[in-house]
Design brief:
The structure holds two protein chains of two kinds. Chain A is of the alpha+beta class. Chain A is built from three helices and eight strands, in the order H-H-H-E-E-E-E-E-E-E-E. Chain A folds into two domains: 47 residues; 87 residues, Immunoglobulins (Immunoglobulin-like, Sandwich). Helix content of chain B is 86%, strand content 0%. Classes of the chains: A alpha+beta, B mainly alpha.
Chain lengths: 141, 133
């Protein structure tokens, strides 16, 4: 660690002295660079070892009957892992919202009377569904 | 290491440098008017637009490779993506025209102005595409 700090300190020396330093401390620099690569790799690998992605619809329950006159709130909870970044909400197969909170609620507006399918999907940073989703069917009357 | 994220990150790096090239190349071409310099910049900007198009498509390809589906885009995001594709197509066309046609100084200048505008528009659309879906 001290070697790394001292190396970083020397790196800010005037450019004329850098080549002299490099030729004198070649092995030390290579060792420190190797350690740096290991450190970066560890940081990159940590998220990969994180928990699996999960997503749940807390309410309404599957098969619930909703009142057309009342605002319908979708409560959800998710665990982000394995490339998941945010959540897409779909009503009858059509995307209706993008949610960045992993737990919360979303007000579904203008649900017409009748049967509807509501799905929430975990997607990656590129907006691609990663295959973790929950769907419920509700009846609005 | 998460290979998928690494693939996205490398593609993003290439895409970003493509964006820098198309905008800065057009701006420099407006400042340096020597024909020789402008031809070099036209080649550079053409390469930049091609890189933009290929790396942009690669984002979709990575998604398809890992999840067997393309990014789920609707509304504003689709409009932003279409705008980016149109900008890239026009950018490739205009730079190719600059290299192949014997155009006058004034028409070349208008072309660089248009390329500058297209670059800025594509960059702005990218931001919208990133945050909307």
């Amino acid at each position: 660690m001290r070697d790394t700090i001292s190396c970083l300190g020397y790196c800010v020396l005037p450019i004329m002295r850098v080549d002299v330093y490099v030729s004198q401390h070649k092995e030390q620099i290579m060792r420190n660079l190797f350690m740096l690569v290991i450190a970066i790799a560890s940081v990159v690998m940590l998220p990969a070892m994180a928990a699996e992605s999960t997503i749940e619809i807390i309410s309404p329950a599957d098969g619930a009957r909703l009142d057309v006159m009342e605002q319908s709130k979708l409560e959800y909870s998710a665990t982000l892992g394995g490339g998941a970044d945010h959540i897409h909400v779909y009503v009858d197969g059509k995307e209706s919202a993008l949610l960045r909170q992993i737990k919360g609620s979303y007000t579904m507006e203008n649900l017409a009377p009748g049967n509807h399918e509501i799905c929430i999907k975990l997607v990656n940073k590129n907006h691609t569904p990663i295959g973790v989703e929950r769907c419920i069917k509700v009846e609005v009357d | 290491m998460d290979i998928q994220n690494l693939a996205y990150a490398i593609t993003q790096i290439v895409h970003n440098f493509g964006a820098v090239t198309v905008v800065s190349g057009a701006v420099f071409a407006l400042l340096w008017r020597a024909t020789k310099v402008q031809r070099r910049l036209a080649r550079l900007v053409l390469a930049g637009w091609l890189v933009q198009a290929v790396s942009g498509a690669t984002f979709g390809a990575i998604s398809y490779y890992y999840y067997a589906q393309f990014p789920d885009l609707t509304g504003i995001a689709v409009a932003a993506l279409v705008l980016k594709v149109v900008c890239a197509a026009l950018g490739i066309f205009l730079t190719a025209w600059q290299l192949l046609a014997q155009s006058s100084d004034s028409s070349r200048r208008y072309s660089w102005l248009a390329l500058c505008f297209l670059g800025i528009l594509a960059l702005s659309s990218a931001a919208v595409l990133r945050w909307f879906s």
